[in-house]
Structure formats: C-alpha cells, structure tokens
Amino acid sequence: MFHRHSDISIRIQIMKKSKNFTIRARLRSFRFAIKGLIVLFPSEHNLWIHSLAAAVAILLGAVLKVNRYEWIAIIIAIGMVFSAEIFNSAIERIVDYFSPERDYKAGMIKNISAAAVLVTAIASLITGLIIFLPRII
Q1: 1 pLDDT more than 50
Q2: CA angle, 83 as apex, 78 and 86 as ends, to 5°?
Q3: Which of 8, 29, 46, 61 could tie 66 with a disulfide, CB 3.0–4.6 Å?
Q4: Residue-range domains of the chain with CATH
Q5: What letter does residue 31 receive in the DSSP assignment?
C-alpha cells in the first residue's frame, strides 16, 4: 500500500513541475526531431531508397500535373513510408541496445518492424500506380 501511495505522489510532483506551454519552447523542441533526421539519413540506407522513390513521385506528379486530391494521396503515402521507416529504425536501435548479441526473439521483433515498412511501401506503390499509370499509358 505504501509503495502505491509513493508512486502517486511522485506522479503528482512531476505534473506540478511541468512547464507552461509556450510557442518558443515548442519551436526549440523541433531541434531534437531535426537531430534525429540528421542521425538517420547518413546511416539508414533504406531512407535513401525511399527518398529516391519520393523524388520520383514528386517529379512525376509535377510533370503529369496531378490534381489536388492526388497530391494529398502522394504526400500522405510519402509521409507514411518515411514515418514507418523512422519507427522501424528506432525499434531496431532499441532492440540492439537491449539485446546486442544475436537473439531469435530480438530478430523477430526487428523482422516484424521491418514488415510494417514493407506493407506501407507496397500500399504507397499501389497508390502511385493508381495515380500515375493511367496518365503514363
């Protein structure tokens, strides 16, 4: 019972110490996200491939003059693939941190995380085919 009470009091203290919302503080917090991108791009080769695919999609969209709604679909598809890849990279690094040696369960976690990227990339490819193929043909 005492342990539970101390957990609650610690949470209350943390909530009291939280800072007030300011635009300036939120803008400063973007530095962490930008640092994350700076760390990821040189080391994650799959992000290079996704960047190339995104550039091709944007170029095709501009050349083939896709409409506003198709642009929305393209932007969402690109964002989803990049987000999935970033989450995958984070999960892989967490797994490597806690299980630096080869481990079957750790490998399965990484495989499942990579599968999420694959599913998102396939959905994005299908979206691109639906938008671009009729114009190209």
Answers
A1: no
A2: 130
A3: 61
A4: 37-136 (1.10.287.3610)
A5: H
Running DSSP on this structure, what letter comes out for residue 20? P
Average the pLDDT over 57-63 and give the result: 97
Tokens of 77: 């598809």
Please tell me whether residue 22 adopts helix, strand or coil conformation: coil
Q: Count other Cβ atoms within 10 Å, centred on residue 18.
A: 7
pLDDT-derived band at 56 (thresholds 50, 70, 90) equals very high
Angle (CA) 123 50 30, round 5°: 105
Helix/strand/coil for 102: coil
Specify the 3-state DSSP secondary structure of 96.
Answer: helix
* pTM (predicted TM-score): 0.78
Tokens of 60: 């095709």
Phi-psi region at 10: left, alpha or beta (left = phi > 0; alpha = psi -120 to 50): alpha
Kindly report the backbone phi and psi dihedral angles of residue 65, in degrees, each rounded to the nearest multiple of 5, phi listed first.
50, 60
